[in-house]
């Protein structure tokens, strides 16, 4: 049976949106590097961070080292992780190298040196601004379902065979890369700036990713479940799951309601609960990634 036109259009739209987010994310990520981090010789983690250290030490073009190193890693990814992961990651790497090359050319002055737009001696401000911009770019890339290559490939392969979390592998590799700066330059400032950049960048990326997926789960214990469900459904469009329960102390029957709402809807729902049943007991917790009717689609 052929797919409906609506589903085919939805797939085209999803692909186009992911493609757009991926390119915008890579452009922003490389802007953080070429405008702030590279001109002030600030390293950070990841494969790009390792390429930046190589660039500081030898002058070897970062765009080439990004492509060459990721090309080798992608051959392992194709062998271990399959075509789908490899193709999307390969495109992200090519996009990264393209924007990196463009950014370096734009930020190089007539004397062949990087332009320090904040002025000399502003490494601290460059560290913070570059890390924030990097985090926003990576966050947008992850929202598109893409990865930036490099250590992501190593972590994915390691996680496939060993009981080590994806994030922990990335952390260990990032700490190793940044720490290696001292052996090359014997300058603790570079190491400290690298760790600060890593901290700010990862938190900025988490903020972008989590803010796009953040919803609220409410567990409501009430004796007026039917009335409450009707009001919430009429005013928000959300429905809920109801479980018949019993108070352990009073042995009185009650309804246990499980409800998912968007973050901005939480206060209105709490007011509805207060108006219908002021004695209701409510537990609220943040959840990341709610999929289904009224929320995100499963891709």
Account of the 3D structure:
With 299 residues, the protein is an alpha+beta fold. It has 2 domains: 5-212, no CATH class; 223-288, no CATH class. The chain has helices at residues 5-37, 46-58, 62-81, 83-106, 123-143, 151-161, 166-179, 181-185, 188-213, 225-236, 266-276; strands at 214-222, 241-246, 253-262, 281-288. Strands 2-3-1-4 form a 4-stranded antiparallel beta sheet. A hairpin with a 6-residue loop joins strand 2 (241-246) and strand 3 (253-262). The longest helix is centred in the first third of the chain and has 33 residues, at 5-37. The model has no long low-confidence stretch (mean pLDDT 81).
Count of DSSP-assigned helices = 11
Please state the structural category. alpha+beta
Cα separation of the termini = 21 Å
Q: Sheet bearing the most strands, described?
A: 4 strands, antiparallel
Beta strand count: 4
Overall 3D form = elongated
Order of helices and strands: HHHHHHHHHEHEEHE
Strand content: 5-15%
Q: Kindly state the mean pLDDT as a whole number?
A: 81
Indicate the percent of residues in helices.
55-70%
Radius of gyration: 25 Å
- In terms of per-residue confidence, which ranges show pLDDT below 50 for 5 or more consecutive residues? none
Strand order of the largest sheet: 2-3-1-4
- Can you tell me the number of structural domains? 2
